[in-house]
Amino acid sequence: MLDPAQYTKADTKVLAVTKLADTDDGMVAREDGLFLGRFRGSVVTRYRWDAPHRIDVTLLHGVPESFNAWFAIREENGGTWLQHVEEMTFGHGALGVIYDAVARRWFERAVEQEVAEIARLLRAGERGRGIAAHATHDNPVPADEHVSVTTPDLGPRW
């Protein structure tokens, strides 16, 4: 998630991402989204970038007890290999057990749809602005820092 506007095109759970602060290696942001496709909510997350190979996302504040996600990206065989994992512990005792029973499959499908949409956007040539999306007057991005992804053949890994 380098470009908040681009991210909301792929993630079916997230409606908006608002950067709250820059960090040395990424940003802190509020994500507004839909739970089970209908219940609105927000979380605050920290994004750490090791461009262009990895993005780590950690929950700072929100209803789930914990949330960690990552994107691992590398060029491979003339295309791009992408791994995206989301791990969430809802916690909260019996409420967490109910969550697992009700929402587990929805959450799995939402992540699968997100990865499929990322692949579609990459095939269509939509790359977003990368790290440049986070440049501000006080925190400019040097001209030589960019993320370039080439995807001539995504292959069956998607």
What is shown here, in short?
With 158 residues, the chain is α+β, with helices and mostly antiparallel strands. Helices cover 23% and strands 39% of the residues.
Characterize the structure shown:
The chain has 158 residues and is an alpha+beta fold. The protein has one domain (4-131): Alpha-D-Glucose-1,6-Bisphosphate, Chain A, domain 4 (2-Layer Sandwich), CATH 3.30.530.20. It contains 2 helices and 6 strands. The protein starts with a helix and ends in a 35-residue tail after the last helix. The model is unreliable at 140-158 (pLDDT under 50).
- Kindly state the number of beta strands: 6
The structural domain count equals 1
Mean pLDDT, all residues: 77
Name of the CATH first level? Alpha Beta
Shape: globular
CATH superfamily: START domain
- End-to-end Cα distance: 18 Å
- What proportion of the residues form beta strands (DSSP E)? 35-45%
Q: Which stretches are poorly predicted, pLDDT < 50 over at least 5 residues?
A: 140-158
| Fraction of helical residues | 10-25%
Strand order within the widest beta sheet: 1-2-3-4-5-6
CATH topology: the name is Alpha-D-Glucose-1,6-Bisphosphate, Chain A, domain 4
Largest sheet: 6 strands, antiparallel
Number of helices: 2
Layout of helices and strands:
Layout: H1 4-10, E1 14-23, E2 26-35, E3 39-50, E4 54-61, E5 66-76, E6 79-89, H2 94-123
Antiparallel strand pairs: 1-2, 2-3, 3-4, 4-5, 5-6
What distinguishing features does this structure have?
158 residues; alpha+beta; Alpha-D-Glucose-1,6-Bisphosphate, Chain A, domain 4; six-stranded antiparallel sheet; globular
